[in-house]
Amino acid sequence: MICNINNEHGYIDYSEDVVANIVGISTMECYGVVGMASRNAKDGLWKLIKSENLSKGVKVRCKDNTLLIELYIIVEYGTKISVICNNVIQKIKYNVENYTGIKVSSITVNVQGVRV
């Protein structure tokens, strides 16, 4: 379990996969994002992940009951990368905090490629 919440109603454990799926789906909803990237350990190349494995381009860690998120994306050619990354950060922070109730302390967006 990555993080947990304890309140007057009970105890909630969140697995890393659940949070990573929320992050992956939120990222793909942003304009200019072509897909998530996954590192191929064999030859060191980055490849595009299919839509059913979006969580493979996301790393989630919990520190002091806040989330540290790192994701790897591929963007569309001709778009402004800084605007795309800011939109991705805002959308992920909003969705994760609203869906889970866990605060997000940092989001790192790594742009691994540009696709036409």
UniProtKB/TrEMBL annotation:
One Pfam family assigned to this protein is Asp23
Q: Which family is it part of?
A: Belongs to the asp23 family.
Q: What is this protein called?
A: Asp23/Gls24 family envelope stress response protein
The source organism is Clostridium fermenticellae
Q: What is the lineage of its organism?
A: Bacteria, Bacillati, Bacillota, Clostridia, Eubacteriales
